[in-house]
């Protein structure tokens, strides 16, 4: 994945008064088309597969952005909309130029659907120090420890492999596909542990009831002949220790399940 400043040289997008030249635009497109094509295909798939109500809402959304009603979204209309929804990251990035499939500084309907997909799917910008905060169009690396925090930390492959970032070096980075699989397996582990604990509680309860019944039967049958004889071998084991057995058994089940899933994660990594 090429970095932004390598693609556009010394040209700067970050001033609204600047006008991009056709040559610079095509240089940019050459570097970003592949990733954006994938995003556009995903956005189009969601749109076409959605119900009529969703498609109608999408058309209304586009019309709201199109202030002058010319059927396209200009850069001014794009920036005004982003200001209204409070997305300063989008207004200060070259996303507008990257989205334009026409190359004429205007966005058509499917360009806007792609924009909506980028926003809705939470596509991050690179937090590295090398690429200038580029939008992630393909695979990227995310900090596992920061994944559920209010401020996640993501890197493009180039910033990650060249260690061009200032993040905590003790944190672990995973690409977005592996991270999704790890989180899925963690959820499976939690569900398995909950199921095992529930099953263990039921089985132990049944076992204890059977033991109590056996103790009562043994006690009634042997009390006349030898009242000092314990009715069951478990009678020699204090209740507190039997409770420790239960805890240890559950811990063992959890350890086995976790070890199996952890080994699968290691195979992936």
Structure explained in plain terms:
The structure is a single chain. With 269 residues, the chain is an all-alpha fold. It has ten helices and three strands; from the N terminus they run H-H-H-H-H-H-H-E-E-H-E-H-H. The protein has a three-stranded antiparallel beta sheet with strand order 2-1-3. Helix 2 (22-49) crosses helix 7 (109-120) and helix 9 (176-222) packs antiparallel against helix 10 (239-268). The two termini are 22 Å apart. Residues 1-32, 226-235 and 258-269 have low confidence and may be disordered.
What is the fold's blueprint, element by element?
Layout lengths: L3 H5 L13 H28 L2 H14 L9 H11 L2 H4 L3 H5 L9 H12 L20 E3 L10 E2 L1 H5 L11 E3 H47 L16 H30 L1
Antiparallel strand pairs: 1-2, 1-3
Helix pairs in contact: 2-7, 9-10
Distinct helical segment count: 10
Name the helicity range: 55-70%
CATH level 3 topology of the largest domain: Recoverin, domain 1
What is the CATH architecture term of the largest domain? Answer: Orthogonal Bundle
Structural class of the secondary structure composition? mainly alpha
The number of strands is: 3
Element order, helices and strands?
HHHHHHHEEHEHH
In terms of per-residue confidence, which ranges show pLDDT below 50 for 5 or more consecutive residues?
A: 1-32, 226-235, 258-269
- Which strand order does the major sheet show? 2-1-3
Share of β-strand residues: under 5%
Provide the residue-averaged pLDDT.
72
**How would you name the CATH homologous superfamily of the largest domain?**
EF-hand
The radius of gyration is: 31 Å
Q: What is the C-level CATH assignment of the largest domain?
A: Mainly Alpha
Main sheet specs: 3 strands, antiparallel
How many domains make up the coordinates?
Answer: 3
């Amino acid at each position: 994945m090429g970095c932004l400043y390598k693609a556009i040289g010394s040209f700067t997008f970050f001033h609204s008064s600047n006008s991009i030249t056709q040559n610079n635009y095509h240089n940019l497109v050459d570097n970003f088309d592949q990733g954006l094509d994938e995003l556009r295909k995903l956005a189009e798939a969601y749109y076409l597969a959605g119900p009529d109500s969703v498609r109608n809402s999408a058309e209304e959304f586009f019309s709201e952005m199109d202030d002058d009603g010319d059927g396209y979204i200009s850069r001014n209309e794009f920036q005004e909309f982003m200001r209204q929804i409070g997305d300063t990251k989008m207004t200060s990035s070259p996303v507008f130029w990257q989205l334009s499939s026409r190359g004429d500084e205007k966005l058509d309907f499917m360009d806007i659907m792609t924009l909506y997909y980028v926003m809705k799917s939470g596509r991050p910008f690179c937090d590295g120090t090398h690429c200038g905060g580029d939008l992630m169009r393909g695979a990227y690396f995310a900090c596992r420890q920061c994944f559920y925090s209010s401020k996640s930390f993501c890197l493009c492959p180039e910033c990650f492999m060249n260690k061009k970032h200032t993040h905590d070096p003790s944190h672990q980075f995973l690409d977005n596909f592996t991270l999704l699989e790890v989180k899925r397996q963690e959820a499976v582990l939690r569900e398995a542990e909950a199921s095992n604990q529930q099953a263990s509680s039921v089985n132990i309860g049944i076992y204890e009831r059977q033991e109590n019944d056996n103790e009562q039967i043994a006690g009634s049958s042997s009390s006349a002949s030898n009242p000092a004889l314990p009715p069951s071998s478990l009678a020699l084991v204090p209740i507190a220790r039997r409770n420790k057995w239960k805890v240890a058994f559950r811990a063992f089940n959890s350890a086995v399940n976790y070890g199996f899933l952890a080994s699968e994660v290691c195979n992936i990594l």
